[in-house]
Design goal:
The chain is of the alpha+beta class. The chain has 21 helices and 20 strands.
Length: 646
């Protein structure tokens, strides 16, 4: 165990050698990065970034819901996040009569702010390295090692949890279980919708522009956190008052230019920077292409009905956006893996590792991992197919208010046929196979389940039961073996490259990333500048296309003249992932210059391999937010709350 801790400690020593552009660093360890950050232009101290003794930047950042980031921008609990992060809440308050998706909404007084059942925001109180506690007296040979660690984790989390005061605790493993960190959160449950622009601003460009640059999307929404009279978390009540934060961001209006220092603070969701070449090959050549094809068909069906009826467009807006987001991301990811020959690069690295590992305990390790991936692939692909087809059919789920049978019936027919045609019979639920046979084929089965909900429920319950008890059990068992091998491989990589800075993969815990404003060259002879402007919105404006049909008020304001160069978005070299949506983009002085919302399509493989030539995060310029609030929506009450840098 002493060797393990020595390897982990070596990460801190080597940290200063990493590129500023790559890495998602734990805030509690930011002191190990601060010299490099300051050398790149950062003006603040490590204590300004993360502190448990005084208010710091971490206290202005929240986990918004279960998968986005938000940041406080006033002393009265006002927060900003992405439009797509607040999309479900905006949709839930919308109707044909009051279409806040189409028209936008702004609460011009506190009593117009709308409650959102189930929406939470979480503040990180502290994070602690608990590796020594959890791994005390545990070795790789300890019987039931994982069960013992899981028991200790549960006990630690339970001992800290306090529902009355809103305290939640979570222990997360890093570096495949070589390190463990405790995260303690304070969770607020009364979060009210303050406002958002029209979707033709907040989602400008729709799926066509998603993941692309140049981008002209005003991707933001605003909410307010409410607390009890003592500023503590509380269930929704009309007696609650706006939360008073320990820290909030000041707004910088001077703008950005190429080369400026940028800093991201947020909750990136998932990365796999250290995986084996066979893991990369499966993602880029097998999994992504299969899922892209399935979602392409689902989107075609949804969009055809949505385009024909505004009521259906509203009903399926959030569902369509959710399906499309990953669909396009996977296209960029698989394309980037191929373009950069990432599989080949991983194999070359493994060859060098193997040469170094001869005669050590790591000899033959990469071959063992590769063999396990070969064993896993058919089961994993069958499991992913089930999730992307059978589980995607709404007929098998409780019907919500946003359900339209013709879409579901056509989509179910397409998905179940794809599942039956592309998954071997032995990897499909036996009951599903029997049902198809007894109905004379998949189409007959679809007719039967849409004629009898009980039959649909029975088919799904029995099929899902088999998937969980048989197929998933195999997937988890093989993955468990792979993860055990990865734990050793991770240690081996650290010993193989003792001067390299290793940062833990993202896992929806708070991280910092820093870089600079920078354009890029997506292909030969083309250079993308790092800033987009309102002029580009007007160039794309098209009243005949929903996602490009901007509000008339925005056209009218532009026609007044002098607004061509209003900044809309910018790109930077910060290492981000899903979950960083809504993250504050901060300048060298720690002031808010933008809101992160996307990555460029050519760089979405950064979850697996960060390429500094192509990997760029896309940010909403905070000056476009101010412009919209002032000139388009007249939300002076919001502007009056903000604090601007002199």
């Amino acid at each position: 165990m002493r060797k393990i801790f020595t390897a982990i400690a070596a990460i801190a020593i080597a940290a200063t050698t990493a590129s500023a552009d790559e890495g998602m660093w734990l805030p509690a360890l930011v002191s190990q990065r601060i010299a490099d950050m300051q050398a790149k232009g950062f003006k603040l101290s490590a204590e300004d970034v993360y502190s448990i003794n005084q208010a710091s930047l971490k206290d202005a950042v929240v986990l918004f819901g279960k998968g986005c980031t938000g940041e406080l921008i006033s002393g009265e609990g006002l927060l900003i996040t992405n439009h797509h992060c607040g999309f479900r809440q905006i949709q839930s308050h919308s109707s044909v009569e009051h279409d806040y998706l189409k028209d936008g909404y702004w609460a011009l007084s506190r009593d117009m702010e709308l409650p959102n059942n189930g929406l939470t925001v979480s503040f990180l109180d502290r994070m602690d390295d608990v590796t020594a506690v959890l791994l005390k007296d545990i070795t790789d040979e300890t019987p039931d090692r994982n069960a013992v660690i899981s028991k200790r984790i549960k006990e630690m989390e339970t001992s800290l949890r306090d529902e009355k005061s809103g305290i939640e605790a979570s222990v997360e493993k890093l570096f495949y279980g070589n390190q463990y960190f405790l995260f303690v959160y304070r969770v607020y449950k009364d979060v009210r919708f303050v406002g958002a622009p029209a979707s033709s601003i907040g989602k400008f460009g729709g799926d066509t522009d998603n993941w692309m640059w140049p981008r002209h999307t005003g991707d933001f929404s605003m909410f307010r956190i409410y607390a009890d009279k003592n500023n503590n978390p509380a269930e929704y009540s009309k007696d609650n008052v706006p939360y008073t934060p320990k820290r909030f961001f000041k707004i910088e209006r001077r703008g950005v230019k190429e080369g400026d220092f940028t800093f991201i603070y947020g909750y990136p969701g998932s990365t796999r920077e250290y995986i084996h070449s066979e893991g990369v090959r499966y993602v880029g050549e097998v999994s992504d292409p299969a899922k892209i094809a399935l979602r392409t068909r689902r989107l075609e069906i949804m969009q055809r009905y949505m385009g024909a009826d505004p009521r259906i467009r509203i009903m399926y807006a959030a569902k369509q956006a959710s399906v499309a987001n990953a669909w396009k991301k996977w296209q960029g990811e698989s394309g980037g893996i191929a373009r950069n020959s990432t599989v080949e690069a991983k194999r070359e690295y493994e060859a060098r590792f193997n040469a170094w590992a001869k005669g050590t305990k790591y000899e033959g390790l990469t071959d063992k991992i590769g063999a396990k991936y070969a064993e896993l692939e058919p089961y994993m692909l069958a499991y992913e197919y089930f999730n992307e087809t059978v589980r995607a059919c709404e007929i098998f789920a409780p019907k919500d208010k946003d359900y339209y049978r013709p879409i579901d019936e056509e989509s179910t027919r397409a998905m179940l046929n794809a599942y039956y045609d592309n998954v071997d019979a032995g990897l499909r639920p036996p009951y599903f196979n029997e049902a198809v046979s007894s109905c004379g084929g998949v189409d007959g089965l679809v007719d039967a389940i849409f004629a009898d909900q009980a039959k649909a429920d029975s088919l799904y319950a029995r099929s899902l039961g088999w998937v969980k008890s048989d197929l998933l059990k195999k997937v988890l068992a093989i993955n468990g073996s792979i993860n055990t091998l990865y734990r050793n491989y991770m240690r081996g990589q650290m010993e193989f490259e003792p001067d390299k800075a290793f940062y833990p993969d993202a896992n929806l815990t708070l991280r910092v990333a820093y870089g600079r404003i920078a354009g890029y060259e997506p292909r030969d002879g083309v250079y993308y500048y790092p800033v987009s402007t309102l002029k580009g919105i007007i160039e794309k404006d098209n009243p005949e296309i929903y996602d490009y049909n901007i509000p008339q008020r925005l056209r009218d304001v532009y026609a007044q003249g002098g607004y061509e160069n209003v900044p809309v978005c910018f790109i930077a070299t910060n290492h981000t992932s899903g979950g960083n949506s809504g993250s504050p983009v901060i300048n060298a002085e720690g002031n808010l210059i933008g809101v992160n919302f996307d990555r460029v399509w050519e760089g979405t493989m950064s979850d697996i391999a960060f390429d500094p030539s192509f990997c760029r995060n896309i940010c909403l310029d905070i000056r476009y937010v101010l412009f919209l609030l002032d000139k388009v929506y007249g939300a002076q009450n919001i502007l009056d709350e903000l604090t601007f840098v002199d």
